[in-house]
């Protein structure tokens, strides 16, 4: 009954999801593209019986890279299908694995909406031998479709906040069968593992493996580019980076930044919004405070990345450059720190 109600509600809200996608497409055109994939209509050009990795968006895609590279090295003849749900995540996959996609070693597509007739069609097309889901992207029907096809499902780099656990606990008849459909959870921390167990996961199906993000190797090129950027800004100028900022955090850090100017007059604040549709919103917040702003995208167009001595806020309104921007920082604040 719980699954029936879930499917019914999900089906009824699909038109509203599409309307929201279209509206978001005003700021990010990617939301208006490739809708057929979200209904499992696509041509699969990879090999059957490969590996399926779902990495949701940008952060999960970056975190999954060491895992993807290890799986490629161990299974060079297998097709790795990498799915995301957001256009920014999709763009990140294309940037990271451009050569592999061109060579047919990696196939990329959006994960379809979590309705049984869509997830079944998707799994039948891909025919993976293992499904690996990154972090917390749990959808009942994709897991059930894998179970029906006898495809083992692993939740990797898993995390579960107390707030999310309480949310799942409100729907035990949906949550427990979903968790029981997982063959293994590799949790980041002991607390995450305990929350999954409290929700009904058998304790012999969870291991604490730590965060895979500590396995990320920062390319030497990114480190060099970050230091070069800092030299352009002034090697002795302090740089504070707010990385992957959420809505509400930018205003808080801007307020604190203005207070810091009394003691650090030449402090440069670099803001990297989490979602591209917020670039203009963040720029407006900066200008409302009458701070001198440089947008990285405009600096690219002018062929000059240098923030002059008058620049107070440098808005990183580009994608795929987080590592080099962090390499330029003296102090970094990670998004979510103020609101989660």
From TrEMBL:
Pfam families linked: Glycos_transf_N (PF04413)
EC number: 2.4.99.12
Pathway(s): Bacterial outer membrane biogenesis; LPS core biosynthesis
Residues annotated as catalytic: 60 (proton acceptor)
Example of a GO cellular component annotation carried by this entry: plasma membrane
Subcellular location(s) per record: Cell membrane
GO biological process: lipid A biosynthetic process; lipopolysaccharide core region biosynthetic process
A Gene Ontology molecular function term of the record: Kdo transferase activity
InterPro entries: Glycos_transf_N, Glycos_transf_N_sf, Kdotransferase
Predominant location category: membrane
Record field: transmembrane: 6-23
The reaction(s) this protein catalyses: lipid IVA (E. coli) + CMP-3-deoxy-beta-D-manno-octulosonate = alpha-Kdo-(2->6)-lipid IVA (E. coli) + CMP + H(+)
Alphabetized Gene3D superfamilies for the sequence: 3-Deoxy-D-manno-octulosonic-acid transferase, N-terminal domain, Glycogen Phosphorylase B
Class of enzymatic activity (EC top level): transferase
Job description of the protein: Involved in lipopolysaccharide (LPS) biosynthesis. Catalyzes the transfer of 3-deoxy-D-manno-octulosonate (Kdo) residue(s) from CMP-Kdo to lipid IV(A), the tetraacyldisaccharide-1,4'-bisphosphate precursor of lipid A.
Family from the record: Belongs to the glycosyltransferase group 1 family.
Protein name, UniProt field: 3-deoxy-D-manno-octulosonic acid transferase
Lineage of the organism: Bacteria, Pseudomonadati, Pseudomonadota, Gammaproteobacteria, Oceanospirillales
């Amino acid at each position: 009954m719980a699954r029936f109600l879930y499917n019914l509600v999900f089906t009824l809200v699909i038109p509203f999801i599409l309307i929201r996608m279209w509206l978001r497409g005003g700021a990010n055109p990617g939301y208006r593209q490739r809708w057929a994939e979200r209904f499992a209509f696509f041509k699969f050009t990879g090999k059957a019986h490969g590996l399926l990795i779902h990495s949701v968006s940008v952060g999960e895609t970056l975190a999954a890279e060491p895992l993807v590279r290890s799986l490629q090295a161990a299974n060079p003849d297998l097709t790795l299908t990498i799915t995301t749900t957001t256009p920014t995540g999709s763009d990140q996959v294309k940037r990271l694995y451009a050569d592999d996609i061109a060579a047919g070693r990696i196939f990329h597509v959006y994960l379809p909406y979590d309705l049984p007739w869509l997830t079944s069609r998707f799994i039948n097309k891909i025919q993976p031998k293992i499904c690996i889901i990154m972090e917390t992207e749990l959808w009942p029907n994709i897991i059930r479709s894998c179970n029906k096809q006898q495809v083992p499902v692993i939740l990797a780099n898993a995390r579960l906040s107390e707030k999310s656990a309480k949310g799942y606990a409100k729907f035990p008849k949906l949550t427990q069968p979903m968790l029981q459909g997982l063959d293994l959870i590799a949790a980041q921390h002991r607390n995450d593992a305990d929350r999954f167990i409290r929700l009904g996961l058998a304790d012999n199906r969870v291991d604490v493996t730590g965060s895979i993000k500590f396995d990320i190797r920062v390319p030497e090129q990114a480190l060099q580019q970050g230091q070069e950027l800092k030299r352009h800004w002034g090697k002795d100028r302090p740089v504070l980076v707010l990385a992957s900022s959420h809505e509400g955090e930018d205003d808080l850090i801007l307020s604190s930044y203005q207070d810091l100017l009394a003691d650090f007059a030449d402090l440069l604040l670099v803001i990297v919004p989490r979602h591209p549709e917020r670039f203009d919103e963040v720029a407006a917040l900066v200008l409302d405070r009458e701070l001198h702003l440089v947008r990285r995208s405009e600096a690219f167009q002018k062929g000059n990345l240098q923030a002059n001595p008058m620049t107070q806020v440098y808005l990183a309104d580009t994608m795929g450059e987080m590592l080099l921007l962090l390499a330029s920082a003296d102090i970094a604040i990670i998004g979510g720190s103020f609101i989660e």
